[in-house]
Amino acid sequence: MNKGILKFLACILLLTSCQDLIEPAQENNRQLDPNAYLPSDSRFPFGILLNGYNRIPSNSWSFNDVATDDAVSNDQTNVYLKMATGQWTANNNPANQWTNCYAGIQYMNIMLGEVDKVKWVADPIASKLFAMRIKGEAFGIRALLMYNLLQAHAGVGKGGNMLGVPILTKTQTTSDNYNLPRASFDDCIKQIYTDLDSADVRLPLDYLNLVSGQESQIPTKYGTVTIEQYNRAFGVTFSGLLSGRIAKAIRAKVALLAASPAFNPNNANKWVDAANYSAQVLNLNGGINAITSNVASGLTWYSNTAEIAALKDGANPPEILWRNNWGENRDLEQANFPPTLFGNGRINPTQNLVDAFPTVNGYPISDSNSGFNPNDPYSNRDPRLKMFILVNGATAGVNNTAINTAADGTTNDGLNKVATSTRTGYYMRKLLRQDVNLNPTSSTNQRHYKPHIRYTEIALSYAEAANEAWGPTGTGTNAYSAYDILRAIRRRAGIGLANNDAYLESIKNNKEQMRQLIRNERRLELCFEGFRFWDLRRWDANLTETAKGVSIRSGAYTVLPSVESRVFQNYMKYGPIPYSEVLKYSALEQNQGWN
Questions:
Q1: What fold, for 7-59+72-262+578-582?
Q2: DSSP per residue, 200-264
Q3: C-alpha angle 86/87/90, rounded to 5°?
Q4: Total Cβ atoms within 10 A of residue 217
Q5: Where does 118-170 show beta strands of DSSP type E?
Q6: Using an 8 Å Cβ cutoff, are 521 and 504 in contact?
Q7: Residue 145 and residue 56 in contact, taking contact as beta carbons nearer than 8 Å
Q8: Structural domain spans, the chain
Q9: pLDDT tens profile 372-421
Q10: Which residues contact 140 (CB under 8 A, 6 or more apart)?
Q11: 328: helix, coil or strand?
């Protein structure tokens, strides 16, 4: 769908250590014409592949939480703030993935069409292995980009059918027909699964170096090859690229979307598929031990200083299945530290989200068994509350500075004091490294990375799907249930340790109550990571819950019932097809409700 893509600036960033990949000399600007480069020129095709990686939407933080009941922003130009307050249209869509993902798909189709013509390395057997791996990567990236297109643009068309997006499996040229109809949602899911099968059959589970004597560990799908040839194509040098493990995790994400209420009115088998695909990924990491054995990493993967410092390029900490490359900077802290720490305080968690954290005994704060004290609301709470959200009186920054968010506070950290102050009485703490110093006289950077997929996400996906497929304690053919996953996640967080999580025990035979608890745990564990915007929509849940805050004066807590309204219509559970595309192509059917 990207007729204007005719040129590409090839930028090789990942593979500079492989000297046999840079013959002949790199050219920076090449026509996207297969005849414009020699079959021995591998630099240009690698650039095409890397363009697909660069277009993965999860490469950077979106903070689309600002368009939900979890957060607001003090930046009045924030595009998700505008979306949430009534300015979301088909030609003004901050969540649009149409151009980005179709551009990436075009590049992957070019790659798949030309990969077998390229001489990747001098050794012909190793060159075939390279082609096999790169083809697998391209199929996997194409599947991931299609998933993001469905998440952003699939929905019920004006004709009443559940539609996906046009399926493109070959390179589009200037002479092709671009006026293509949308495929059905289910056909798009099938195409994604086909691409993931094609990726999985070509890729190693992980990129590892084998040593002499480990020839038997070379998968039979690669034929008779030496250790050296295998390592050249599938060795640890390529850690961080899309692998078989990652392809399986993408399948789990896709299956959960396909099974969700907004896209699946009555097919129970889709929940079974979603649960089993998630279980396959978890079982590669020890099953439920993926949660219980990685307690610290699972909760504080973004701030474990020693763990992050020890990371090599492409390597992952225990909680992370796939991530982007780390970088040393202070961008997140600059945007989100409170004003007294020289930050702009941009993302302000809501009272709604704060209220979603239970007390430490596991009961919701609305339950009389919780022991919640509204006059001391942050005591005796789920430990994740203060890990993820900066509440009044908590400390932050390199000097453990006490932050006063009260409306009658004496600093600019207080409620609505200045343009960079909190609007809700809270600041975001999660994702931020407290060892970053923003003081202009002694500023420091620290390592950061952005996960594409975490094991906790997959575990919560399993819990959601297993509960729908088999009920809270059912396991299907797996070794654990939705209840088992929730118990492990909550115990990891420090919930219910003193009372055997009595609340969880009280609902473990109730599918509906377990569904709400699973959704709430997903809300807490994945907050600020860009999930809730999409979760509310795939659940067909309420999008219009008003964002609340808290005003603290003289030590008294008053809930602010309406910090910011959420102005969404019912049809907005599905995003629009871009207005410009509908104008250009008459075969494209818009989703219901959008112009």
A1: 1.25.40
A2: HTTS-SS-----TT-GGGS-GGG-S--HHHHHHHHSGGGBTB--HHHHHHHHHHHHHHHHSTTT-
A3: 120
A4: 11
A5: 155-156, 162-163
A6: no
A7: yes
A8: 7-59+72-262+578-582
A9: 999 999 999 999 999 999 999 999 999 999 999 999 999 999 999 999 99
A10: 195, 196, 199, 203, 242, 246, 247, 250
A11: strand
